[in-house]
Amino acid sequence: MLMTATPPIAMGLFDQNCTEQNRLRYPALYRETQKSAFFNHKIFWKWISNAIIHSAILFWLPMFSYDTGVVWKSGANGDYLVVGNIVYSCVMVTVCLKAGLAVDSWNWLIHLSIWGSLAFWFVFLIVYSFAWPIGNFLAPNMAGMVILVGTTPMFWTCLLLVPFTTLMPDITLMAINVTAFTSETDKIRLAEHARVDPGPYISDSKPDYGSRAQPKIKINRTIQI
Q1: CA distance 69 to 67
Q2: Which among 99, 100, 88 is positioned nearest to 125, based on CA atoms?
Q3: CA–CA distance, 50 with 225 (Å, rounded to integer)
Q4: How far apart are CA 7 and CA 112, in angstroms?
Q5: pTM (predicted TM-score)
Q6: By three-state DSSP, how is residue 193 classified?
Q7: Would you say 118 and 163 are in contact if contact means Cβ atoms under 8 Å apart?
């Protein structure tokens, strides 16, 4: 959680679907949010199912890759820590790239949170691998781990192919949704990117004050004699 905490925080604070000016001009854009189109029970279980599928791919692909084991020239062999660090590295790359897929408007703070989290993990792995030889006080079983992991070609192969395999269904579904099932928010984002007036792409560009009439207020007056 510490490694991947900053991207969702930065996205929640600084990401925006549309510009402030278009939100003010076209209040109908708030309709999807009011209807909970972006977060409801269906979306929640969709994300849960997606996380389970991602977890299975991220774990089993590196496991299958290291099924026969790896022995280095020094005589060291890969154990659960080698596979675990490779899996976690693939998890970090996948989580950060997945956060990038969910971003609607990039800015330097979101860039810093995503790529900074990714860089922080690899810097941490390097420092943690040499903590024991330097001070003899922390992580003796992690000594030299970055050397073991970094000197096997399978690590770099997994680092490229495993996140790509994991996120390919997400990229495909996003492309289908944007092209075939385009929402009003997507339409206005595409219009903003093309620098055209988004008004024609909105079903109701007038302010939406609600269809229910305002209730009348009855005043009961009591005359005292």
Answers
A1: 6
A2: 88
A3: 73
A4: 9
A5: 0.76
A6: helix
A7: no
Confidence of residue 203 (pLDDT cuts 50, 70, 90): low
Write out the two tokens for 209. Answer: 């004050």
Whose tokens are 């001070």? That residue is: 135
Angle at 64 between CA 147 and CA 120, to 5 degrees: 40
Find, among 189, 166, 209, the residue nearest to 106 by Cα: 189
Would you state the structure tokens that stand for residue 225, as one six-digit string?
């004699």
Residue length, the chain? 225
16 and 110 in contact (C-beta within 8 Å)?
Answer: no
Longest CA–CA span in the chain (Å) reads 108
Give the H/E segment covering residue 99: helix 80-102
Is residue 159 classed as helix, strand or coil in its secondary structure? helix
pLDDT at position 222 over 70: no
> What are the structure tokens assigned to 197, written together?
């007036």
SS3 label, residue 149: helix
